[in-house]
Design goal:
Elements: E1 5-16, E2 19-30, H1 36-42, H2 52-57, E3 73-79, E4 88-94, E5 99-108, E6 111-133, E7 136-149, E8 152-163, E9 166-177
Antiparallel strand pairs: 1-2, 3-4, 4-5, 5-6, 6-7, 7-8, 8-9
Length: 178
């Protein structure tokens, strides 16, 4: 991570059935230079970086991502969500269970700044894309699980509008049901 976290080692000695075992644990503390790019690099690394200060800095609740260990996958796509002819970055973070966060990022100078986010539960791999017509532009997120039980299942596609307050849900409809 190129100096974005400092590492402290702890050694624990365990005695079990007459034998001693030594384990080395690495704890990493957050440094001020963590960024959205760092989150993408941390995904899948199974390192432990406390992310609470980062989420406070970007004024976003941590959700399940208090610690980088929860970042199982991350990817980015691009699309012009605000209609200014410049693509925003749509960063997708997901855990290993069923939680996914989409963060819309706008380039300001050399840094990415969050302009909105949406947290979703899913059963299949959720994807986001920008859709538009003459009336507006939306972030469309598919594979959002909304109903399930024995013999029934429903996934929705939900559209979000980007406002000055962030992403606001505008439309949701069944994508797949049985």
């Amino acid at each position: 991570m190129k100096g974005s976290a400092s590492t402290f080692g702890l050694i624990a000695l365990f005695l079990f059935a007459g034998s001693a075992s030594i384990f080395l644990f690495q704890l990493q503390t957050l440094s001020p230079d963590i960024s959205f790019d760092t989150l993408e690099q941390l995904a899948g690394s199974r390192s432990h970086v406390n992310l609470e200060a980062f989420w406070r800095k970007v004024q976003m609740p941590p959700g399940v991502f208090n610690d980088s260990y929860a970042l199982w996958k991350a990817s980015s796509s691009f699309g012009d969500l605000d209609g200014d002819n410049t693509n925003e970055r749509i960063l997708r973070l997901r855990d290993s269970d069923d939680f996914c966060r989409f963060i819309v990022l706008k380039r300001i100078g050399s840094e990415w700044s969050a302009v909105g986010h949406a947290d979703v539960l899913f059963s299949h791999e959720p994807e986001a894309r920008v859709v538009s017509n003459e009336r507006g532009r939306w972030l469309a997120v598919n594979h959002i699980e909304t109903g399930w039980s024995t013999g029934t299942f429903q996934e929705n596609e939900t559209w979000y509008a980007l406002t000055d307050s962030g992403l606001i849900e505008s439309l949701s409809f069944p994508m797949e049901a049985h």
